[in-house]
Design a protein that fits this description.
Strand content: 5-15%
Strand order of the largest sheet: 1-2
Number of strands: 4
Order of helices and strands: EEHEEH
Helix content: 25-40%
Structural class: alpha+beta
Number of helices: 2
Length: 106
């Protein structure tokens, strides 16, 4: 069960409204990033670099900005990274390196 808390602010006329959940200006708070902001991509990248997840297959942590080969997104960049990894695996097999060897997935 997921419980989401909503923050409210009291207006001058006695009514209540939801607080603005977007970051505006140079205020650095733990709120949502405004997608209309001109530096949205940069802020999103910085936020994704701070989130780490453990991969059961790799047995190590990875950040969302640079995911492991098992958790790549469906974006063109992710597909290109997966194809490069598969090429590297195929080249390693042709050289006689077995599957147990860890290949660099960068």
């Amino acid at each position: 069960m997921v419980v989401t808390l909503i923050e409210w602010e009291k207006l001058g006329n006695g009514k209540w409204k939801k607080k603005n959940l977007y970051v505006t200006g140079n205020v650095h708070t733990k709120r949502k990033i405004n997608p209309d902001s001109p530096d949205y991509a940069k802020r999103l990248q910085r936020t994704m670099e701070k989130i780490f997840i453990y991969c059961e297959e790799c047995k190590k942590k990875y950040c969302l900005a640079n995911p492991c080969i098992h958790h790549l997104p469906d974006s063109p960049e992710g597909k290109a990274k997966l194809e490069a990894y598969k090429k590297k695996q195929k080249a390693a097999r042709s050289e006689g390196i077995n599957n147990q060897t860890v290949l660099d997935n960068t």
